[in-house]
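Example record for the data management plan.
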Amino acid sequence: MFSTKRRQSFESITESKNVSAWESLISDLSETRREDDEMAGDDDNSDGGGGFLYGADDDTSLSLSGSGNDDERMEQTSDLPEFLKNIHQDNDAAASSNDGEEQTRKLLGGQDCPDIKSTLSSIDALSSSQTTSTTLESPSQLKDWMAYRSAQHPPHVNYMGRKMDETYTFKAAQIALSLSKYLGRQFEQEKDAKNSHEDLPSISCEDIVVDNVIVKNVDSGEAVLKSASPSSGTTNHRSGGNIERRQVLAFGMILYELFTQGTPPPRQIQESLKSSGSILSFGTLRISEQSKEEDVDDWNASGGNRRKNKDDDDDNDMKGEADHSAQESFVRKQRRRRCDGKGKEESVSTLLKLAGVPSSICRLISDMLSNRDDADFGGLFQYDKAVSCFAEVIMDLEQMVDQPKGYLHDTMRLSAKPIVQNKLYSRQKELEQGIELARRSAAGYHMEEDREEYVEACAMDASPSVKQEVLVITGLPGGGKSSLANELIAQLKSNGWESLHCKFNHVGRRQPLSTIASAFDSLFSSLLSTENTWGSGGSDKLGDMRTNLLKSFDEESFPILFHLMPNLRRVVSNDGNSIDMQQAEYVFDESAMISSKIRLHNLFYELLKAISDAPMLLFLDDLHWADAASLDLITFLIDEMGASIADDPIRGTNVFIIGTVRTNEVDNSSDLSEFLQKIRSCYNITVTDMALQDLSPADVNVMISEALCYSQRLTRSLAGTVHHKTEGNPFFVKEFLNDLTVENLLVYSFSERTWDWDEELIESRTISDGVAEILTRKLLRLTKDELSGLVMLSCFGSEVSLEVLALVRSSLGNLDIMNTLDCVAQARFVERTDEKYRFVHDMILHAAQGAVDENERMIIMKELLQALLPHGYSDDTILFIVVDLISRVGANRVHDSETRLLFAQLNLTAAKKATNTTDFASASTCVKCGISFLSVGHWEDSYRLSLELFSQSALVEWALGNTEQMMSSLEEVFNNANRFEDTLRAARVKLAYLRMTGNCLAEAFDYGFQVLEHLGESFPATPKNGIIVQEMLGTKQLVTGPLNESKLKSLPEMTDSTKKEAMAFLEQMLICSYQSQSIYFPLLACRMVRISVQYGWTKTSCVGLASLALSLVTVFSDFSEGYSLAKTSMSIAGSDKRVLCSIMTITYGMINIWKEPIQAILPQLKDVYNMSLKYGLIDTALSSGMFHAYRAFFTGSLLQPFSKEVALFMRNNSERHKRRLMHLCVLSLSNGISCLRGNSSGPQYVDEFITEEHLAEALRNKEFAACEAMFAIKMMCSFIFRRPDGIKPTARQYLELFERHGGASAQFVNIYRLFYGGLLSLHYYRESKDQFWLDRAAHAIQKMEVWTAESVWNFENKLLLLQAERHYAFGEMDRAAEKYMLAQKSSKKHRFVHEEALACELAASFHEKTGNVQFVAELIDRAVNCFQTWGAEGKVESLLIDDESYDGPNFGLETKR
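Corresponding structural encoding:
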């Protein structure tokens, strides 16, 4: 301890303005040395060489003033230690430097101090006086390294004092780190040492001296001790805690000399290591004279809780339990934790600082030299910040080497506040996982070297390795979800990826789909502004994208996208097409509302494909706040991506999707839960859930260390307290640190370059509401104007454009909102871009919303509403902001009747615009809000507004599937409408609902005819055949003939509104009648044609004309006239895609099959299907897709690729759009394919996938076409697998039913119902001779003869096979054999491979029965080959017999199926 007298002397010196800290230190050291020498006596340990005060006598006195002559100064220094002698001897040389003198004088307050100048010069002289070579080779002695580096990088002196060269300091830090790791290896955990095959060196304290250090590599800084050698036998890696502290102390001496370029440490510290006494006393150079013991928790947290080896703990076992209790009584927790103390306790640190060593190194070495090995107390008590193990040394040095600017060099800190780095903490594992998922998403574009192998694997039904990857990052608010995603985006973009960033907002209703659309628009804007290029090839990115866009969209599609993304027009426009693009405008068709939604979804999907030639990342931030329309669109995009992988597994989508979701918001949003469930069920989609946990105490320590630029060793205790308060939430930690600086609980000293904090006060702080409380308190420190501006900004949501703010600039009195927000931006509450202001974090937005009470917030919103209202009529963006403010103000706060009507009208306008963009959820919200502003007697006072609101409500609720709300709105309209014409809009909704429900087809018929009756178009209740024939003949004469095509094209446009409405209802009734195979179909078609001829042409007139052509084929069997009329309808259809797709479906699917080869029609049907999907024509797409599937199946398309098409069609259409009977039809087809292919996972018997219940359900709903299609598949599979008896009762029932109900009409399904029904009937007739079956067969043959006359290609082989079976049944063997052979040839010629196989098999059976066994084997081989070509491995299996001893066919036995 310092004496009182000596302390007073020291304080009086240091407080003097004319005496420097360096002079004070020397004075104190001189006095201290005398006292130490008196205590030391003649001890041998006092003779150390090269120590700091080595050789000083008791009566040595120092003259610290600048006066006196040279002789006096020489006399005064004669007995000083050698180091101080050098200081005074070099004083004159230092004084000769005017610059150095002037700088030193400035540093010391203008006072002359030759002794200080001598001190600075002597340190340089000591380094330069050493002999240095011109080169330095590896390995080298450390002293040689220091001499060489000191000459190359000498310290320099400026007005701030002496400073070590930064290059030297950094290289010295590298050596220190290497050596500390080398020494620290012996103190690794025991299990690690046992598992190591490397012998660890046995190192003693005596080895750890500068002379023993060898720099193995002078460039990398690798260093070792030359005297340490691998031990034989056991290694000395467990030396005990006291030994490690002594070794740290010894290592600290090396670092002292290393970083001062060769200056030895003070002698007391050198001798303390050699002392064998119980106390390692440093005399007055002790860093802290107050010893303390770290409590157990702090000791464990510091990394110093290394287990002691019992053999090395003899010193610690000297005391008993009583002594241990005595130790605990001395334990206390230091309230004010600092790196350094004050006054004379800073002497070693001060020496290092004066030598120019950086503050961080000063702190580390001082703390290393502060170790105290007190044997009386087991070595537990030591200075609070003393470095006790090599792990702490390594921790400090690694930070310095890895981040020298922040932790090593004395960089001037410009702010006394923590600066939290914009980086991730403890998220490396998650980041690597995200990069791997991104790589998988783009795998299809990096597989060219393995393409052939991969194609072969896909052909063998191997699971594709390319998946659509979706990453869902979940966590609590402030947990770093967006930060992780943004870091992932940054890394991917550096590798050539592009990104679309969709940030959803829960406050403020935006323009429908604007969040997703604006993400695309921002990407286009970025590309236009940068004109950057892709890849190293330098190809034009914008030009490539323009080419893809022009290929993907037509002139009807672009206007829809231009409406949502204005910058897209600039991307695709050039000198050649800009005029056309400008002329096209988007017009919404309410009659095709659902189709418009699907079409818009398809447009977004095609747009995403067109711009993702290079990998694309779609970032969906804050999905828990996404609106229903956006979630629907995202679901569609993900589902389509999975489907595209199934369609082309080689390429994939090249799109990686990331979504962030707050864990505490999932249960609050049913839309979000449903969305997550849907995307997880999508085909070829892999959803990875990544739950982010809060940071651990160690992670928080890293975060705080980097924020303060302070060693993790020193911030560990603060980090523990902060983690306890914040639970490791990253955003909370950041705000909590900032709050501590504001409350002066965390203070930075610019002079000392240290941080000061009070743990007890921090721990005592109560934060009941978490980070929200801190943010609220932070907001309340703002000025009144700043707070008002921030609250106003929160009324718009997370962001608002500068254009909108310009409109409300004066809404808050004299407040200049722009300047106010700029001031707030400086406080990091918001940030400004070129286009908008946005909150830095959503939690700040929430805090701003709660910073004022509800009444004050309502006043601000009303002022904003008043300012924006005049602009809402012309700007859609402003309109949706206005209606959002209206909804939040609420109808109960608006009492003026005119204002209420105005607000209701604005909501109706917004609802219509939302409907036009297929955002039916937003439209529903607007309609409900508008209805809430209506008065009690609104049907009388505001009839037209009420009618439009409730009609719009019925429309959007139907689109959303809210049946109850739809019916309620319909009843409002039907009960309060003044005239029938006012109900037509609601009537269209009701008819569409009944028609598309599936089980209400009969009710739809009745209701549709009621509406048509009111429109002047009546129909007979039970039309007779004569009426139908007469109507068709009369209509045919109107439109047939060589000149009628030109007459039809010249018809004027229909102007009668009633007839227009009638045409719209007639078109819907046509669909109903076709589904039910009603006799009304030809009557409805004729009525549409007659109205068009009489009143003018509409876009639906061509549908009526094509339906008439179909009626001529099916009713009159007038194939030539129907074929010609169908061509006419296509030629005059125009460019309307909805009408054109409907006509093409009718023409290709139901008319051309009677004239053209059916295989040639299949690609045309597929094109119609794709076109219908593209334009959102779901009804047409489902019809054309079903036609293609059934025709491809029955005509023998190869089953392996075809099965994938059917699965894709079933998944994307019949399941997605909830068409029950259509789904059953496609499911029956899919199961039939599986059965034929022999899939073990599929049904094994026909009865398993086409049951009586399925057929009965179709009949109950009058879906005769669906019932007949399923039954045709059932008969086909039963006959092919030779199981006729299982279907016999059902066949008798349904064949008779279908003949009574339109069985004679020429429809595609009738072809195969008659073909397989005829084959079964002839089989049954051979067995039973029942005339019923012969009549069925005769009818089938008669029809095939008629159809063969129209198309030999499609029907000849079928007719020949039926004739062969009939001859066989009648015993006409020669004629039967001939027909079998002709059937085989015709099937092969016309490419019906499955029917060729069937003809061969039946011929083999025939020849076996007749004894012509010489033909059987060949025919069976041909049948097997044809079935294998078709892909019917299941059938092939049934033909082959497991018993090798049996050579004949298996026709007389039941097959496995």
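Summary line stored alongside the record: Residues 1308-1328 form the longest helix (21 residues).
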